[in-house]
Design goal:
Order of helices and strands: HEEEHEEEEHEEEEEEHEHEHEH
Shape: globular
CATH topology of the largest domain: Conserved hypothetical protein from pyrococcus furiosus pfu- 392566-001, ParB domain
Structural class: alpha+beta
Number of helices: 7
Distance between the termini: 27 Å
Number of strands: 16
Helix content: 10-25%
CATH architecture of the largest domain: Alpha-Beta Complex
CATH superfamily of the largest domain: Conserved hypothetical protein from pyrococcus furiosus pfu- 392566-001, ParB domain
Largest sheet: 8 strands, mixed
C-alpha cells in the first residue's frame, strides 16, 4: 500500500527487496520513507490498533483521484462484537492463520478493514479540520478531525450492519484471537457510505488449467460469440482466451457475476479447473506462456451486487473482487498514534 507494508509478516519488504521487520514497519508519510518506531507509533500499536484497548479516535479520510468521485470514509476502532460484519466471500484457514500470527507477534493487526455502510451513515461529508494531506502518485489522501459530538461510529446509533469490502481474513483473525485471548475483538476500520461513488470494484480474472479447450459449437445455456479484449465483457459473461482462439460465453439466463458463472457452468463445460487469479487481464493472458490452458476474463461488478449478496447471506466466489483505492496504512497509523490525545 503505497510503499507502506500493511502486515507484519516477513514476506513483505521495501521496493528494493530489503525485508521489513516489525521494528521498521511504522509511520511513512511518503512511499518508501520508512522510519524507526518511536513513542508515537508504540502508543498506536499498544493502544490504538486495537487488540488490547479501544481508542476514541475517529477521523474522516478522503482519497481524491483525477476524474473520479472522491472516496470518503470514517477511520477508527470498531468492536466487532457490537455490530454485524457481513462477508461477501469465503475465507481460507491458512490466510486467517497468517494474520493471527501477525497479531500474536506484535499485539496488533495494522492493516485496516474496509467496510461498506448503509446510506445515511454518519458525519461523512462535513470535512472538519484538516489534520494531514499527502500525495501518492496521482492520489491525494486527506485526513480531517471530527467534531467532538461526531466522534462515534454511526453504526452504533444507525444501521449496525456493515458489509466487508476488503479484509475478510483480518476480521476472522481478530475474532479468533479475541476468543483465544479473552480480549475484545477490536479492529482498525475504514467505513464507506454506499451513497458515495468513489469506491471502484474491479473483477478478478481467472487462469484455467487442463487441456487447451476448443470453442463450443453450441450450448443450451450460452450464446457463443467471437471475442476480443477490446470489446469488453458484459456483466455475467465470460471471455475465454487460448493460444489459438478467443470466444465469449454469454449466458441466456440471469447470470449474477462472471466468476460464479465460470465456476458453476463454463469451467465444467470446457473440462477446466481454476488454477489462479489475476487482477489485470494481461496478467491472466500471460499465464498461458507458463503452461496455462486458457485465461477467463470476467465482466464488471458493482458495489450494489456485493452488498445485496452479502445482506442476503450469499457468498461470491473466493477472490471475485478487488476494491480500490486503498488506505495508506503508515499515514493512518502515524496520525492515530499522535492524535489520541
Amino acid at each position: 500500500m503505497y510503499g507502506e507494508p500493511s502486515r507484519l509478516s516477513s514476506d513483505r519488504g521495501r521496493s528494493n527487496g530489503t525485508p521489513v521487520s516489525v521494528d521498521q514497519l511504522y509511520a511513512a508519510d511518503t512511499p518508501d520513507a520508512f522510519q524507526p518506531a518511536d513513542d508515537r507509533v508504540e502508543r498506536w500499536i499498544a493502544a490504538g490498533t486495537m487488540i488490547r484497548h479501544r481508542d476514541a479516535v475517529l477521523v474522516r479520510y478522503v482519497i481524491e483521484r483525477p476524474n473520479q468521485t472522491p472516496l470518503v470514509g470514517l477511520v477508527g476502532v470498531m468492536n466487532l462484537a457490537e455490530t454485524t460484519i457481513l462477508p461477501h466471500e469465503p475465507t481460507t484457514p491458512s490466510e486467517v492463520a497468517a494474520r493471527m500470527a501477525d497479531i500474536e507477534r506484535a499485539g496488533a493487526l495494522l492493516e485496516p478493514i474496509m467496510v461498506m455502510a448503509a446510506p445515511g451513515f454518519g458525519p461523512m461529508f462535513d470535512d472538519g479540520s484538516l489534520l494531514r494531506v499527502v500525495t501518492y502518485g496521482d492520489e491525494t489522501h486527506s485526513i480531517y478531525a471530527l467534531k467532538p459530538e461526531d466522534v462515534q461510529w454511526p453504526g452504533e446509533s444507525h444501521d449496525r450492519k456493515f458489509v466487508i469490502a476488503d479484509g475478510h481474513h483480518r476480521v476472522q483473525a481478530i475474532l479468533q484471537h479475541a476468543d483465544n485471548s479473552g480480549n475484545a475483538p477490536l479492529g482498525l476500520m475504514i467505513a464507506v457510505d454506499t451513497r458515495t461513488q468513489g469506491m471502484t470494484v474491479e473483477p478478478q480474472h481467472r487462469v484455467l488449467a487442463g487441456l487447451i479447450p476448443k470453442r463450443p459449437a453450441t450450448s443450451d445455456h450460452f450464446d457463443v460469440l467471437p471475442f476480443s479484449l477490446a470489446d469488453g465483457v458484459p456483466r455475467g459473461a465470460v471471455g475465454i482466451i487460448t493460444k489459438f482462439d478467443a470466444w465469449l460465453m454469454s449466458p441466456t439466463f440471469d447470470a449474477g457475476i462472471s466468476a460464479a458463472v465460470l465456476t458453476e457452468y463454463v469451467a465444467p463445460l470446457l473440462g477446466l479447473a481454476v488454477s489462479g487469479v489475476a487482477t489485470r487481464e494481461r496478467d491472466a493472458v500471460a499465464e498461458m506462456a507458463k503452461g496455462a490452458a486458457a485465461a477467463a476474463i470476467m465482466g464488471p461488478i458493482t458495489t450494489d451486487v456485493v452488498i445485496t449478496e452479502a445482506r442476503g447471506g450469499r457468498l461470491l466466489p473466493h477472490k471475485a473482487t478487488c476494491f480500490s483505492p486503498k488506505v495508506a496504512v503508515g499515514l493512518v497509523g502515524a496520525l492515530l498514534g499522535g492524535y489520541a490525545s
